[in-house]
Amino acid sequence: MTRTVLFAIAILAGLAILALAPAFLGEYGLGFMVSLMSYVTLATAWAMFSGPTRYISLATVAFFGIGAYTVAVFNETLPYPFVLIVAISIGALLATFVGFATLRLAGVYFVIFSFGLAELVRQLITWFEVNITGTLGRYIFLPFETRHIYWQLLALAAVTIGIGFWIRQTRLGLALKVIGDDELVAAHSGIALARTKVLLFVLSASLMTLAGAIQSPRWVYIEPAIVFNPTISFLTVIMALLGGATRLWGPALGVIPLMILFEWLSASFPDHFSIFLGAMFILIVFLLPKGVLSAVETRLARLKREANA
Amino acid sequence: MLISTLMFGLVLGGTYALVALGLSMQYGISRIMNLAHGEFMIAAAFCAYVLFDFAGLSPLVTLLIAPLIGFGLSWLIYTVMMHPLVKRAANRGQLEADSILATFGLLFILQGIMLVVFGSDFTSYSYLNIPIDIFGVTIAVSRVVAFGLSLFLGLVLYVLITRSRWGATLRAVALSPASAPLVGIQVDKVARQAFAIGGALAASGGVLVSMFVTFSATGGVVFTMKALIVVIMGGVGNLLGALIAGLALGVIETFVTSYFDPGLSLASTYLLFIIVLLWRPQGLFGSVRS
After folding, report:
1. Which helix (H) or strand (E) element contains residue A222?
2. How confident is the model over B139-171, as pLDDT tens digits?
3. A187 touches chain B (CB under 8 A)
4. Which of A175, A186, A216, A272 has the CB geometry, 3.0–4.6 Å to A71, for a possible disulfide?
C-alpha cells in the first residue's frame, strides 16, 4: 500500500515538474519538449495495440495526419473542443473500418494494409482538395503559444500512459495477454479475438489522431505532404521497440534517447539521415528484440543469481 | 481509347506481375515479408538508366546483368540478415514480425543511399521510343518489348516451378517447411535460393519498368505496396494467380488514371484490395488453407 502511494506521489511530482518546464526553457527547448511529448503519446499508443498483438502497424502517421488536417479544415468554423471531437471521430471511424477489414484475418493482411494507408489518405485528401474544394494548403489560426500546445500534449501523454496502465488492470488487459501468448488458447477460452483487437486498435488510433490534432497549430501552414510524413510512422515504431513494446513505460523510455539522437543526426547529417535510421532500426531488431527494459531486467536477474550463488 | 487503355494497362500489369512473383517467392517459400522489395526494383531501374545514359548500354543488356546482381545481393542479405532471424524465431508469427521490421530498416537504408547518389528528382531515359501500330493503337516499341519480356520471364519461372524437380522442392518447402527435411530437402538452402530469385525478379522488373516509366529514388515503396496487394489477390504462393492478378491490377489502374484522375491510382489499388479482403481473403485464385 505504501509503495502504491509513494509511486503515485512520485508520478504527480514528475508531472508537476514537467508542467513547469515552460518557465525554464527557451523557445527551442520547449519546441523539443513538444515533439518529445508528441512521440511519447504516439509510441505509447502504438505499443498499446502492437505490443500485445505483435501486429506491426506502419500507419501511425495516417491517423496523426488526419488529426492535424482536420484541425486545418475546421479551425475557423468550429470551436476548438468540437474540432478535436470531429478529429477523433474521423480517426476512430477509419480505424474501425480498417480493423474490421483486416483484423479478422491473419496479421500480415493488417501490416500490408497499414503499410500504404498513410499514402492512400494523403492521395485522397490531395485529390479531394484539388478537384472539389480547390484549396490545397490551409492555414491554422488558433490563439495558442508553444507552451499551450505543450501542456495539452503533456496531458495527452499522461492520459495515454494512464489508459495503458488501466488496460493492464482490466479483463481487456488479461484477454490481450492471452492473445499475445497464444491465439488458439485465447479463442478456446471464449475471448472474442477480432472484437478485442479492433477495440484496441481504435483506441490506439484515436490517441494518435488527437496527438496530431493538438500539435497542428505549430505548423500554421498545412499541406497533406507535410502532415503525412512517413518518417513519423517510422520513428514511432523504432522508439517503441527500443524501450520495449510490451512494457507500460518502455515506449516512453525509448523516446528520450532517440529524440536526442535524431535531433543531432538531422542537424549534422541531413542527407544521410535515413541511412542512419535504417541501420539503427536493424540493430535494434537484432540486438534488443524485446527492448532495453527487458534486456536490463534479464541482466539484473542474472547478476542477482550469480551474487546469491 | 478503350483498346489503347487496355494495352497500356497490360504493359504496366506485366511488370507488376513480375515484381509480385518475386515477392511471392520470398514470402511464400522463404517466409520473409520483404518490405524493401521495391527498392531493389528502383535500384535496378537506376542501374539501367546509368548504363544507358553514360555507357550507351541497351537496357536489354542490363536485363542480363541487373538480375544477377539482384540475385547475389539478395543471397547475401538472406545469409547475413535473414538467416539469423529465421534461426531465432520460435514460430512463424515471430519470424513475420521480425522480418517486417528488419526489411523496413533495409528499405530506409537503400532509399537513403539512392537519395544521396541520385537525388529525389524523377528520372527517365528514352529507349526504343518508336511508335508502332498494333490493333489500331499507337504504342512505343519499348512498351511492347517490356511486356513480352515480363510475360516470358514470368512463364519460364512458372514452368520451372511446376514442372521441374527443383521446382518440386521449392513447392514442398512452401507447403510445409517442417516436413520438407523428412524427404531430404535442405530447407535452408531452398529458402535462400527462393529469396535470391525474388531479388533477381525485382531487378528484372525494375529494368523493364525503367524503359517506359519515370521513376524516383523514393518510388520503391509504392511498387512494394502494389506487389504485396497482387500477391494477396492472387493467393499467397500461387504464382499463376499472381501473374493474372498483376495484369488485372495494371489494367484497372490504367483505366482509373485515364478515365478519372491520375491522382487516384493508389486508391484504385486499395479499393481492389478491400474487395478481395472482404470477399475472398484467401485470394482470387487461392484455395482455403489455414
Report:
1. strand A221-222
2. 777 888 888 888 888 889 888 888 888 888 888
3. no
4. A216
Chain B stretch 79-108, residues whose beta carbon is closer than 8 A to a beta carbon of chain A: 81, 84-85, 88, 93-94, 96-98, 100-102, 104-108
**Residue B4 in 3-state DSSP?**
helix
CB atoms within 10 A of CB A21: 17
CB–CB of B267 and A123 under 8 A? yes
Helix (H, G, I), strand (E, B) or coil at B120: coil
- pLDDT value, residue B277: 79
Listed residue (A222, A234, A198, A212) closest to A66, CA to CA: A212
Interface of A with B in 112-141 (CB under 8 A): 112-113, 115-116, 119-120, 123-124, 126-127, 130-131
ipTM score of the complex?
A: 0.81
Q: Give ∠ CA A39-A66-A41 in degrees, rounded to 5.
A: 20
Give B-chain residues touching A269 at CB under 8 angstroms: none
Per-domain boundaries in chain B: 2-279
**DSSP code at position B121:** S
User: Is there a contact between A275 and B99 (Cβ–Cβ < 8 Å)?
Assistant: no
User: Is the distance from CB of B203 to CB of B40 less than 8 angstroms?
Assistant: yes
Confidence band, pLDDT 50/70/90 cuts, at residue B290: very low
Structurally, chain A folds into a number of domains equal to 1
Distance of alpha carbon B247 from its chain centroid, rounded? 12
Place of cell 543469481: A305
CA triple A151-A154-A158, angle to 5 deg: 140
The set of cell numbers assigned to B182 is: 523428412
CATH number of the CATH domain containing A286: 1.10.3470
Choose which CATH entry (1.10.3470, 1.10.260, 1.20.120, 1.20.1530) describes domain B2-279: 1.10.3470
Rounded Cα distance between B157 and B174, Å, is 15
The whole-angstrom separation of Cα B128 and Cα B147 is 13
The SS3 assignment for B212 reads coil
Cα gap B218→B214, rounded to integer Å:
12
Which residue matches cell numbers 482490466? A170
Q: How far is the C-alpha of A14 from the C-alpha of A302, rounded, in Å?
A: 31
Contact B100, A111 (CB under 8 A): yes
